[in-house]
Amino acid sequence: MAAKQNRFKSSRKETERSKRGNRREWGRIANRLLLLVAVLGFVYGVERLSAKLDAIPVERVVFAGDLQRVDRDVLVERVTGQLAVGYIGLDLEAIQAELEQEPWVYRAVVERLWPRELKITIVEETPIAVWGRGGLLNHRGRIFVPQDGSDYGADLPRLDGPKGSAIEIMRQYRLMSQLLGDEQLTLQHLEMDARGSWTARIDENVELVLGRQEPLEKLRRFLWVYRKYLAADFATVARVDMRYINGLAVARTQHSDKG
Fold first, then answer.
1. What pTM does this model have?
2. Could you give all domains of the chain from N- to C-terminal order, each with its CATH number?
3. Are 190 and 169 in contact (CB under 8 A)?
């Protein structure tokens, strides 16, 4: 009899444990379902919110910066094609790249201003020299070509050289200008040809032939001769050839009395 009671009690305990296990399992399933519903609801909400945000239009585009050469209407035209995606979907880097294709735009800074405004700050190019035929050179050695055909280089020095030589020619121009400036001479034109030979034009349109090797050393040698022999009547000089190892050749103007 006692044995039967023990078996009965044991069976009840197992049944209760089984029920508790089933309840825990159903609880875990319910929790997972609730979590899935919550995740789906969150994703749906995000998509709805994203759709609403994408629908927000750009109501105003503001251009900042001192626009002297850049045509504002051209900038507006370039930006307009980028606005269809809405305020949130704007690709600021793409707008920047589009604007910087304009020859006179050195840098464009594009930023969103909440709630629906786009601000664009334009930094214009500042040319330091005329490059070749129709081009201009900025302070970083970048060549840009204005499209309107105007002559912007009346007061700028003129530089020229093979493709890829702009930075080196700009560097040499600065060094030579400093040396010539010490003697109150102005470097008006500097050119390097395809063979690497340098030619300069200085005050009174005097041609200075420096050749391929060590142009700065040859310029220093010219300045020594200039101070000692040429300064007094430099207006009569038309050309100085510095390509000789131990000397130079001076050609004077046709109206000069000197040979």
1. 0.71
2. 60-124 (3.10.20.310), 129-252 (3.40.50.11690)
3. yes
